[in-house]
């Protein structure tokens, strides 16, 4: 039994490496699927998926792109002030929710290396123009980690990089970033 389990795990690991998959929220994220198709499988992103649906952004994030999505985890949403998520999910707050969610999206595919190159070119900082029209500032946090600073001065750390999608790339965040 143990040998069978180890063999199965080895085959799964080899399959993931061959398919360039990354584990997010306990599930494999497949590069041939689009942003929404992968996000709905992540147990760590159920709040984000619910928000994307409430804002009517599913079709957009399933389109050709490419997009770079900075995806906050459920914990990131839970760390917002009490009642924030519930309030944002109400139909009358759709415009505000949409602005916040599109603040987490950049047009184009910016993997770790592309962001790092932009930071180096910007002498330690890179301005990333978001789909909402705002700006996120990318900067190094240590020798290999990248953080994002929002327009309110809050810092979010990228915890998982380069989750490739058919229409872009996702980077997982530990906090929700907020526009002005």
From TrEMBL:
Domain FAS1: residue ranges: 32-177
Record Pfam families: Fasciclin
Domain of life (superkingdom): Bacteria
Matches recorded under PROSITE patterns: FAS1
SMART domains: FAS1
PANTHER family according to UniProt: FI19380P1, PERIOSTIN-RELATED
Official protein name in the record: Fasciclin domain-containing protein
Organism: Rhodocytophaga aerolata
């Amino acid at each position: 039994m143990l040998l069978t389990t180890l063999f199965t795990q080895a085959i799964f690991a080899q399959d993931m490496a061959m398919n360039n998959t990354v584990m997010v929220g306990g599930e494999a994220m497949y590069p041939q699927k689009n942003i929404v198709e992968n996000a709905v499988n992540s147990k760590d992103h159920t709040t984000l998926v619910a928000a994307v649906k409430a804002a009517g952004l599913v079709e957009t994030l399933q389109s050709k792109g490419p997009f770079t999505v900075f995806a906050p985890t459920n914990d990131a949403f839970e760390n917002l002030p009490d009642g924030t998520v519930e309030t944002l999910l109400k139909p009358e707050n759709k415009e505000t929710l949409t602005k916040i969610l599109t603040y987490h999206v950049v047009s184009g595919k910016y993997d770790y290396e592309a962001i790092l190159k932009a930071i180096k070119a910007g002498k330690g900082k890179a301005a990333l123009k978001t789909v909402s029209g705002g700006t996120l500032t990318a900067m190094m946090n240590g020798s290999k980690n990248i953080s994002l600073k929002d327009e309110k001065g809050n810092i979010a750390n990228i915890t998982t990089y380069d989750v490739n999608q058919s229409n872009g790339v996702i980077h997982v965040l530990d906090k929700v970033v907020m526009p002005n």
